[in-house]
Amino acid sequence: MKRKRYSVEQIVAAVRQHDLGVSAADIARKLGIAEQTFYRWKKQYGGLEPSEVRELKQLREENAKLKRLVADLSLDKVMLQDIAGKMYGPLPVCNSIRRSSARRGCDNVSGLLMDQS
Fold first, then answer.
1. Among residues 20, 55, 57, 97, which one has the fewest Cβ atoms lying within 10 Å of its Cβ?
2. Does residue 12 fall inside a structural domain?
3. Which stretch of DSSP H or E encloses residue 96?
4. Count of the separate structural domains present in the chain
5. Does residue 27 lie in a domain region?
């Protein structure tokens, strides 16, 4: 059976019909969906205006884009650490670095790397 995809605006319109008194069973039958699907839509989109729904959709798309960007940057970081480890050997780990002296600790490690070249 072919799945139908409904736009967010269509879902909000169906939820509004239910708010106006149309039974959930009638709406589900009209749309060709299960009642449980309708109630899930109602839980997710109930009380939202169409403009808020568009904004929600844009925010979700932006969030997905940012998650992909973070994943790509994390992968780049791991690759660069692997390359640095192969070029300079294992990097020293300084356990005594406190938050206030983290910058100085980074400078010390980079100084060690410069001395090896």
1. 20
2. yes
3. none
4. 1
5. yes
pTM here? Answer: 0.50
DSSP state of 112: H
**19 CB-near residues (< 8 Å, 6+ apart):** 46
- DSSP, residue by residue, 11-49: HHHHHHHHHTT--HHHHHHHHT--HHHHHHHHHHHTT--
What pLDDT band is residue 66 in, cutting at 50, 70 and 90? Answer: very high
Cβ–Cβ under 8 Å, residues 50 and 56: no
15, 46 in Cβ contact below 8 A?
yes
Look up residue 33 and give its two tokens: 């969906």
CATH number of residue 43's parent domain: 1.10.10
Residue 68 resides in a domain: no
44 belongs to a structural domain: yes
Residue-wise pLDDT for 71-112, tens only, equals: 999 999 999 999 988 888 766 666 655 555 555 555 555 555
> From CA 17, how far away is CA 23, in angstroms rounded?
8
Domain coverage including residue 29: 1-48
What type of residue is 42?
K
